[in-house]
Amino acid sequence: MPHKILILPGDGIGPEIVAEAVKVLDVLRADFGLDAETEQGLVGGSAYDATGTPLPQRTLDDAKSADAVLLGAVGGPKWEPLEIAVRPEKGLLGLRKELALFSNLRPAILYPQLASASTLKAEVVSGLDLMIVRELTGGIYFGQPRGVRTLENGERQGYNTLVYSESEIERIGRSAFEIAMKRDKRVCSVDKANVLECTELWREVMIRVGKDYPQVQLSHMYVDNAAMQLVKAPKQFDVMVTTNMFGDILSDCAAMLTGSIGMLPSASLDANGRGMYEPIHGSAPDIAGSGKANPLATILSVAMMLRYSLDEDGLAQRIESAVSTVLDQGYRTPDIFAAGANEVGTAAMGDAVVTALRANA
Ligand code: NAD
After folding, report:
1. Ligand 1 center from residue 281 Cα (angstroms)
2. Using an 8 Å Cβ cutoff, are 93 and 137 in contact?
3. Can you state the angle between helices 244-257 and 223-232, rounded to 10 degrees?
4. N or C: which terminus of the chain carries fewer CB neighbours within 10 A?
């Protein structure tokens, strides 16, 4: 059976960067034996314009029957005046919810060729390759009760609830351990078990799940120390697994270690390995249509898709080494440009990756 991939270009630079990822998929199908069918759909502002909703039923049905979804980006100033229920971002959030994508994978990889793009010293970050696994559908962002209430003395009080059930912790734990098995086999679980009972349970369940993965080394770190260690010595980490809110904060911090938003892919997985893959950046309305967007984050999202949803690790590695080759060759889109490099636009960067893929066949 061929793999089924739904492609959702979205808004702004989305269609431009996704077109380059599609070139890569086409080469893998033509020259490297990838057995996959692709279909395109609408999401975000462009879906709203065409159908009146940012997440058409057809897109949702197609996503549910696909093995993986590749998404560009959604949003832009054109749709900001719309009411929240039909804003482009609702398309993305709706997909995550309806597909039960609870495991958010945010790698932070710094190719040695781009070490000078980081605000940290090159020796601290060069060669960085860490994976943050963030729980995406539970925790304090969804816990009940929540709200703002008025106390007897008339003062208002805001409150939210941090809740995790054992089963929620266990499934994100398994997701992290499974990923570690495909990497350096080290998991660091980040919590605040010294203060929050909920994350005391988190730690207890992580230890229990870890017993099923004896090859993986499990360690624990309080979130405040983890934030410090991420900027002090980020290369100590392989896989970090943490709650929704801690992961939200730490993954943005880790992304910035690399200095370039145009290089970072992400994945959101369900319990069966089906996933949605997208660059971490947005629709970049400021450069949309100019042909300057960096397509590498989207191309690297295809690599993640091959590894985590389609069980094609060899093809994933081919894409990653082709990206490394084009960086070695000096190709740079403007966002990662440095003196002496060969500045190229979106399509030329995609073409360079395709050429490198074919050359390494
Ligand atoms: P953004 O990530 O779109 O852009 C931030 C900056 O990074 C801009 O200067 C942009 O030009 C640059 N940039 C982003 N991607 C790039 C790439 N591939 N190559 C070169 N430069 C790149 O964030 P923003 O400006 O805060 O948001 C713009 C729109 O995107 C908003 O509507 C926002 O809601 C939406 N957004 C969508 C997603 C998503 O679809 N997952 C994520 C974040 C923001």
Report:
1. 5
2. no
3. 10
4. N
Please answer whether residues 109 and 123 qualify as being in contact, where contact means their C-beta atoms are separated by less than 8 angstroms: no
**Which of ligand 1's atoms lies nearest the C-alpha of 281?**
2
Best of 281, 296, 301 for a ligand 1 pocket test (most atoms within 8 Å of beta carbon): 281
76 close to ligand 1 (CB < 6 Angstrom):
yes
Give the 3-state secondary structure of residue 32: coil
Tell how far CA 217 is from the center of its chain. Answer: 24
Q: Please tell me the distance between residue 180's alpha carbon and the centre of ligand 1 in angstroms.
A: 29
Q: Is 91 in the pocket of ligand 1 (CB under 6 A)?
A: no
Could you give the domains of the chain?
A: 1-102+270-361 (3.40.718.10), 106-260 (3.40.718.10)
Per-residue pLDDT of the chain (361 residues; tens, 9 = 90+): 899 999 999 999 999 999 999 999 999 999 999 999 999 999 999 999 999 999 999 999 999 999 999 999 999 999 999 998 899 999 998 999 899 999 999 999 998 888 888 889 999 998 899 999 999 999 999 899 999 999 999 999 999 999 999 999 999 999 999 999 989 999 999 999 999 999 999 999 999 999 999 999 999 999 999 999 999 999 999 999 999 999 999 998 998 888 788 999 999 999 998 999 999 999 999 999 999 999 999 999 999 999 999 999 999 999 999 999 999 999 999 999 887 889 999 999 999 999 999 998 7
- Closest-lying ligand 1 atom to the alpha carbon of residue 293: 19
User: What is the per-residue burial (b if ≥16 Cβ within 10 Å, else e) of 94-133?
Assistant: bbbeebebbbbbbbbbbbebbbebbebeeebbbebebbbb
